[in-house]
Amino acid sequence: MNEIKLGAIESRFADIIWNNEPLRPKELEALAEAELGWKRTTTLTILKRLCERGIFQNKERIITSLISREEFYALQSEKFVNDTFEGSLPAFLAAFGSRKKLTSEEVEELKKVIDKMRG
Question: Residue 11: which of 41, 40, 39, 49 has the closest Cα?
Fold first, then answer.
């Protein structure tokens, strides 16, 4: 994937696709007009851009994702931790925790996530 970032509007557009795929271009155009106020040309331009990034495809006039929303955000999160904290998840959590205290429920949920990751 060339570029994994999405701007705020691109993210809203991507959510439309993820929430409704598979889609025909006319269906996507109608949804983008209703939810974003976009014209056909804007919709097709942004779709083409996201297809070039390897997030979606428009194959035989059917629009589908090449990666799921979950995969996309996992990649984005991993890139952020790598770029900002030299790949250290503990350093990220320490920085995050320095401004926000976790609830007991959040601590338990994180323990479950860590146990699952140990596999």
Answer: 49
